[in-house]
């Protein structure tokens, strides 16, 4: 709702109760006061229902939730999904000027005297899909077995060439900080499907290579109310900081404290109409509920041996990608709207073959297991999964090139991602790059297009999902974006 219109409605109600107390009597005035200064349990519950309760989408959705697997650092499309067998014959040749076309380079390779072509060191296998097969690297054999569920986009592009603005762009639709993240927009647009967990949850796994910083603003709410921001679950004994009560504080003590603070906050909210106070009330009540729901969520003792085996040997180690993928499925079952997993360490400027083997091994089996697990539980068709980095990698080597070792620099001109479930066409590929995986030659896709398409699958029109801020209606797709209709099932 427009904040100004919301304030006008509040003022109207306030005026009604004030006049009612004078003309009808103290009974109605007492009722009004009781509504304004209700105990936290009632005020917060109403706050959750009003602010984060499930909302009607713009049209019938294909997906109810999103699981976003972000490979932080930008994995090489050439070594995973964009198969270019003809490059083997061009090993160590100079990248042709007709391919590079004077495009900008990062400061890390702009000073190189040569730009030698580096074919992938890995073998590729063509797995059955619903077209002529999907070529997938030997690094991802488990993903190959679910290739017929994947919708590859091989023609992604971005305007950002460095990690921080590129990740910001993928998360918020804009390279400059300050905008709401995709998860926050989803929470604002659709609300919550559960009462005991946040609408937007973030899980982070440490990788094996060069790891870029992850800023909390990547899952922040920007100028949206703060109750739409992501909640990070940690891998330690305390999954959410400050959620547990201190020693000596009973649950009844916590309830009494929240009731008192809730009354004070409710009175201040009635006086100032500050939406952040209402958000604080709702968040405090959610934290109280999470004291019971989070320990149950992270307790994997009720999972069958078959399920644990499906996700691989690391599934019982908190913080691993396997453990976080299983938690993602458990969050999906419990009605969490937006679940984001970050896997750090994909920034291979050198020693790419060695580091990528470790990175891919950590994610391959858990991702395939997540897809199969969701499918067998009837959740895949209503869960949209996105696997993506923030940009691609160059075909030329950064640093010394050998047959068994090389690095790759940042490359925003083209890269590959995939989606699954949630209303996308399974087992297809969209877009095409040139013989060097350097430029897009067919069906280019921008980040705003991806966001518009994902919102569409959630039942939201990206042009109508707006928030007025500083005199302008903002949206996730800014002033661009088109729905990729050929990818919709």
Describe this structure in words.
A hairpin with a 2-residue loop joins strand 15 (467-469) and strand 16. The model is unreliable at 18-49 (pLDDT under 50). The protein has one domain: Alkaline Phosphatase, subunit A. It has an eight-stranded mixed beta sheet with strand order 6-5-7-1-8-11-4-12, with helices on both faces. It has helices at 3-23, 26-36, 40-52, 97-100, 141-144, 163-172, 182-190, 251-272, 275-298, 305-311, 321-333, 352-376, 447-457, and strands at 65-71, 124-127, 134-137, 150-156, 200-205, 231-233, 338-343, 383-388, 392-397, 408-411, 415-420, 428-430, 432-433, 440-442, 467-469, 472-474. With 489 residues, it is α/β, with parallel strands linked by helices.
What portion of the residues fall into strands of 2 or more residues? 5-15%
Number of helices: 13
Radius of gyration: 25 Å
Broad CATH class: Alpha Beta
CA-CA gap between termini: 32 Å
Q: Structural class of the secondary structure composition?
A: alpha/beta
Task: Report the CATH architecture.
Answer: 3-Layer(aba) Sandwich
Q: What is the total number of structural domains?
A: 1
**Tell me about the biggest sheet?**
8 strands, mixed
* Overall helicity: 25-40%
Shape: globular
Q: Please give the order of strands in the largest beta sheet.
A: 6-5-7-1-8-11-4-12
Question: Mean pLDDT, as a whole number?
Answer: 90
- Helix and strand pattern: HHHEHEEHEHHEEHHHHEHEEEEEEEHEE
| Tally of strands | 16
Enumerate the spans where pLDDT stays under 50 for 5 or more consecutive residues: 18-49
Q: What name does the CATH topology carry?
A: Alkaline Phosphatase, subunit A
């Amino acid at each position: 709702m427009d904040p100004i219109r919301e304030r006008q409605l509040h003022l109207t109600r306030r005026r009604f109760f004030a006049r009612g107390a004078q003309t009808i009597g103290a009974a109605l005035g007492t009722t009004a006061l009781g509504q304004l200064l209700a105990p936290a349990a009632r005020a917060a519950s109403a706050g959750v229902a009003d602010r984060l309760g499930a909302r009607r989408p713009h049209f019938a959705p294909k997906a109810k939730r999103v699981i976003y697997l972000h490979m932080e650092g930008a994995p090489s499309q050439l070594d995973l999904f964009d198969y270019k067998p003809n490059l083997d014959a061009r090993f160590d040749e100079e990248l042709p000027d007709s391919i590079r076309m004077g495009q900008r380079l990062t400061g890390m390779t702009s000073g190189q005297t040569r730009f030698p072509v580096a074919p992938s060191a890995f073998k590729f296998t063509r797995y059955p899909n619903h077209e002529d097969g999907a070529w997938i690297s030997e690094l991802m054999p488990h993903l190959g077995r679910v290739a017929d569920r994947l919708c590859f986009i091989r023609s992604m592009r971005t305007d950002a060439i460095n990690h921080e603005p590129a990740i910001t762009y993928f998360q918020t639709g804009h390279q400059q900080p300050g905008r709401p993240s995709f998860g926050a927009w989803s929470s604002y647009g659709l609300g919550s499907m559960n009462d005991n967990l946040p609408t937007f949850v973030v899980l982070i796994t440490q990788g094996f290579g060069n790891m870029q910083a992850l800023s909390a603003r990547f899952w922040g709410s920007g100028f949206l109310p703060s109750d739409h921001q992501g909640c990070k679950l940690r891998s330690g004994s305390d999954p959410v900081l400050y959620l547990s009560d201190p020693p000596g504080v009973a649950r009844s003590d916590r309830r009494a404290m929240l009731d008192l603070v809730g009354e004070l906050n409710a009175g201040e909210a009635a006086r100032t109409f500050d939406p952040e106070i209402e958000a604080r009330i709702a968040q405090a009540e959610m934290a109280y509920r999470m004291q019971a729901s989070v320990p149950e969520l992270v307790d994997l003792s009720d999972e069958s041996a078959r399920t644990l085996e499906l996700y691989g040997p690391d599934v019982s180690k908190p913080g691993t990608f396997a453990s976080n993928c299983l938690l993602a499925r458990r969050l999906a079952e419990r009605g969490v709207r937006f679940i984001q997993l970050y896997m750090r360490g994909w920034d291979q400027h050198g020693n790419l073959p060695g580091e990528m083997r470790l990175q891919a091994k950590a994610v391959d089996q858990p991702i395939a297991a997540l897809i199969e697990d969701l499918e067998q539980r009837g959740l895949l068709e209503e869960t949209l999964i996105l696997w993506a980095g923030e940009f691609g990698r160059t075909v030329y080597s950064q640093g010394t090139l050998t047959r068994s070792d090389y690095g790759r620099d940042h490359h925003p001109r083209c890269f590959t991602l995939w989606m699954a479930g949630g209303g996308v066409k399974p087992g297809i590929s969209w877009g095409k790059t040139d013989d060097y995986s350097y430029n897009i030659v067919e069906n280019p896709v921008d980040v705003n297009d991806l966001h518009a398409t994902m919102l569409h699958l959630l039942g939201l029109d990206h042009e109508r999902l707006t928030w007025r801020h500083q005199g302008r209606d903002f949206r996730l797709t800014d002033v661009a974006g088109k729905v990729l209709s050929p990818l919709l099932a």
